[in-house]
């Protein structure tokens, strides 16, 4: 561990620290201030006073107070200064005159820096150009910015710094702030939508004694009090289905999921998903609900269902395409996996199409999935439900009663990316037990994403779970889609980053 915390300050930082020490000596330490009462936030001032004329505001004696960060200084002669201050949602101009605040207070204001947070009291006015402005009677420094903000025109030049110092990005880039306001709006919209349907939001454990609920490599940790290895959850599925066993008929959870995988523009090891489980329904019911949720979120954020993403124009208001995985492979490659074939035959077909089959635990179903990932995914642009996944890659989905090689499962793809994963849930405890055994065999053959045997979940199913449909939707990717963000880092406030070199 490096205990050397010596720091080098730039010339500007040194000057700001000297200004702060001067304030301390004068008894004006801003960091000792604990509260500043605002009569209005800036949005309210703009809403309340924008329609007044210059003359009407000149006769208006309303005393107001607000606060914000200084973003701009502009001197108006030697005895007056214009500045802009910014709070969470808006920016407003302020006007400070020496003959109104006094010589000492005017010098105090002149000595402030861009980035400082101030409280102001005064009245509202309009300039000769008609700009709504606060005529300051009193200004108070509430927090000294000891570091300068980036140039307001250049912003943060280093994209890595944008993510590492998100707090600075939020200050200087209104589009970044808007993205995260919309992220919150999307989550609230989903919650309100599901609540109105009568479904209940619940919370389930983040630490699991077993790894299960999805095909993913978990993060492992040691639980000291139990002297046992635990895992950060890779899904909320198995606990939510226990709730259905317990008698709840519609439950959902929005929460963090952890998968020990790579970093990319599409993947972060810590991400947010929503999972919903509804009793007495199947995956087709959740196809309709999924469409409705996404359309509702699009309208909440953008006021419409049309958008552009990844260079494509999309209309989320149209019915989403429904495409069986085997039909999709046949349409794109000409290979027909509807015919029953042996593993060796499937492997030979894969070799002819340069599809690598390297893992010992693979079966025909795995090869079908390889073909889909290799040839089909990249061609999906319009919102498409791809359904009928092979049984081998869907250990928690109900088998199709007409062709048990495939399951009642779908994934939603838009512009080459997966947004949702849905099952008609497997509720046969005998079948579930056998599939967990198959997963154990795969793990022994090298599949580090295979599920553990969860006997408690099997026993829960033995008490009886009604026919149930379940869906997981990636919140981060949905936010990316609806805000036009190309990287998952753009929609995570504090994404995981590689250590600085």
TrEMBL record:
Enzyme class per UniProt: ligase
GO BP term, example: lysyl-tRNA aminoacylation
Residue sites binding Mg(2+) 1 per the record: 411, 418
Molecular-function annotations in GO: ATP binding; lysine-tRNA ligase activity; magnesium ion binding; tRNA binding
E.C. designation(s): 6.1.1.6
Entry annotated with the keyword ATP-binding: yes
Keyword Metal-binding among record annotations: yes
Pfam family, one: tRNA-synt_2
GO cellular component, one term: cytosol
Key words of the record: Aminoacyl-tRNA synthetase, ATP-binding, Cytoplasm, Ligase, Magnesium, Metal-binding, Nucleotide-binding, Protein biosynthesis
InterPro entries reported in the protein's UniProt record: Aa-tRNA-synt_II, aa-tRNA-synth_II, aa-tRNA-synth_II/BPL/LPL, Lys-tRNA-ligase_II, Lys-tRNA-ligase_II_N, Lys-tRNA-synth_II_C, NA-bd_OB-fold, NA-bd_OB_tRNA
Co-factor remark: Binds 3 Mg(2+) ions per subunit.
Needed co-factor(s): Mg(2+)
Primary location: cytoplasm
Positions of Mg(2+) 2 binding: 418
PROSITE patterns attached to this UniProt entry: AA_TRNA_LIGASE_II (PS50862)
Catalyzed reaction equations: tRNA(Lys) + L-lysine + ATP = L-lysyl-tRNA(Lys) + AMP + diphosphate
Subunit architecture: Homodimer.
Family: Belongs to the class-II aminoacyl-tRNA synthetase family.
NCBIfam families attached to this UniProt entry: lysS_bact, PRK00484.1
PANTHER family: LYSINE--TRNA LIGASE, CHLOROPLASTIC_MITOCHONDRIAL, LYSYL-TRNA SYNTHETASE
Protein name (Swiss-Prot/TrEMBL): Lysine--tRNA ligase
Phylogenetic placement of the source organism: Bacteria, Bacillati, Mycoplasmatota, Mollicutes, Entomoplasmatales
């Amino acid at each position: 561990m490096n205990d050397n915390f010596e720091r080098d300050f730039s010339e500007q930082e040194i000057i700001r620290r000297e200004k702060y020490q001067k304030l301390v000596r004068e008894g004006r330490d801003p960091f000792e201030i604990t509260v500043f009462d605002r009569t209005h936030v800036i949005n309210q001032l703009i809403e309340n006073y924008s329609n007044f004329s210059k003359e009407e505001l000149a006769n208006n004696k309303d005393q107001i107070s607000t606060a914000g960060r200084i973003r701009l200084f502009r001197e108006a002669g030697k005895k007056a200064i214009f500045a802009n201050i910014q709070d969470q949602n808006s920016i407003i101009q302020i006007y400070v005159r020496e003959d109104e605040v006094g010589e000492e207070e005017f010098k105090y204001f002149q000595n402030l820096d861009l980035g400082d947070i101030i409280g102001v009291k005064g009245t509202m006015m309009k300039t000769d150009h008609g700009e709504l402005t606060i005529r300051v009677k009193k200004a108070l420094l509430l927090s000294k910015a000891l570091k300068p903000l980036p140039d307001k025109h250049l912003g943060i030049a280093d994209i890595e710094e944008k993510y590492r110092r998100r707090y600075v990005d939020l200050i200087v880039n209104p589009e970044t702030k808007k993205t995260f306001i919309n992220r919150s709006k999307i989550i609230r919209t989903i919650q309100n939508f599901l609540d109105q349907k009568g479904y209940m939001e619940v919370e389930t454990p983040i630490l699991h004694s077993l790894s299960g609920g999805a095909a993913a490599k978990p993060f492992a940790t040691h639980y000291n009090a139990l002297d046992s290895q635990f895992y950060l959850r890779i899904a909320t599925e198995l606990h939510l289905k226990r709730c259905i066993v317990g008698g709840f008929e519609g439950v959902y959870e929005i929460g963090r999921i952890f998968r020990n995988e790579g970093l990319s523009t599409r993947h972060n090891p810590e991400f947010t998903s929503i999972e919903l489980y509804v009793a007495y329904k199947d995956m087709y019911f959740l196809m309709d609900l999924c469409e409705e949720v996404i359309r509702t979120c699009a309208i909440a954020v953008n006021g419409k269902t049309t958008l552009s993403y990844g260079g494509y124009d999309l209309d989320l208001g149209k019915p989403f395409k429904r495409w069986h995985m085997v039909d999709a492979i046949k349409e794109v490659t000409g290979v027909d996996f509807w015919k029953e074939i042996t593993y060796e035959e499937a492997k030979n077909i894969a070799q002819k199409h340069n599809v690598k089959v390297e893992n010992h635990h693979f079966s025909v179903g795995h090869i079908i999935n390889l073909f889909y990932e290799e040839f089909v995914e990249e061609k999906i642009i319009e919102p498409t439900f791809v359904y009928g996944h092979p049984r081998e890659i869907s250990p928690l989905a109900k088998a199709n009663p007409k062709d048990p090689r495939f399951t009642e499962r779908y994934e939603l793809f838009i512009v080459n990316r997966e947004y949702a994963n849905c099952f008609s849930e497997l509720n046969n405890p005998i079948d579930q037990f056998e599939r967990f055994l198959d997963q154990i065999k795969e793990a022994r053959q090298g599949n580090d994403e295979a599920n553990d045997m969860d006997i408690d979940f099997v026993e829960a199913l033995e008490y009886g779970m009604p026919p149930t449909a379940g869906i997981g939707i990636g919140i981060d990717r949905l936010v990316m889609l609806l805000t036009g963000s190309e990287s998952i880092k753009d929609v995570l406030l504090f994404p995981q980053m590689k250590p600085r070199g």
